[in-house]
Model the fold of this input.
Amino acid sequence: MDPLIRLQEVRKTYAMPGGDVQALKGIDLEFHEGEFTSIVGTSGSGKSTLLYLLGLLTEPSDGVYWFRGRQTDVMDDLERSRLRGREIGFVFQSFHLVPQLDIERNVLLAARYAGAPGNGVPLERRATELLERVGLSHRFGHRPVELSNGEMQRVAIARALLTGPSLILADEPTGNLDEENGAHVFELLTSLSNDEGKTVIMVTHDMQLAEKSRRVVRLRNGEVIES
Ligand SMILES: Nc1ncnc2c1ncn2[C@@H]1O[C@H](COP(=O)(O)OP(=O)(O)OP(=O)(O)O)[C@@H](O)[C@H]1O
Ligand SMILES: [Mg+2]
Done:
């Protein structure tokens, strides 16, 4: 089976006043549909850069990135943002929820950004179903400030799922959570891959969680040293 994602000799260099920063130095990686991968490595090793690149939020300085057999690095901005809106959901360490909105409205915001409604099911119903799916039906109408950190991250996961993406990218999703909530969020992400066939790529510093993943990609100094 062709991989969902293929990176070939991908480099990312930032031009800085003090000289170039080579964040990624020639990455060759494949990710298959339905796979769950943890990306680990010390601070500054290029994990977030790799994740943002996979999420089409930043472009490689060199090399080729194929998504579903399509070469993304030659696409224009509109094509890239369409692909991102249809196929990719993001989860961040600090949740990025809108404090003034209740959890249903926070989840619904994803549709506005992506412009891609899911499956013909009215979006409000889908948002409600997703919040049930992540175990938050008892928190409808609550705003983020009225939730625990673990609950906020589960709202963010529901939001990432609203448009029915095939790829979920999570940058240290358990970084602000205690062990119990972290384990819960990890189980949720695992089940998206195991039960729903989503491709999940998670950056983490938590080695205990990483070791539970089917696959671990380790970066050091902008290079893959284990995959
Ligand atoms: N926008 C940017 N401009 C310049 N340099 C950057 C930029 N983003 C990242 N870098 C540099 O690229 C390297 C990789 O950064 P990156 O954020 O990918 O690391 P990381 O592995 O995610 O680290 P952490 O575990 O601390 O989050 C670092 O040396 C960083 O300083
Ligand atoms: Mg990072």
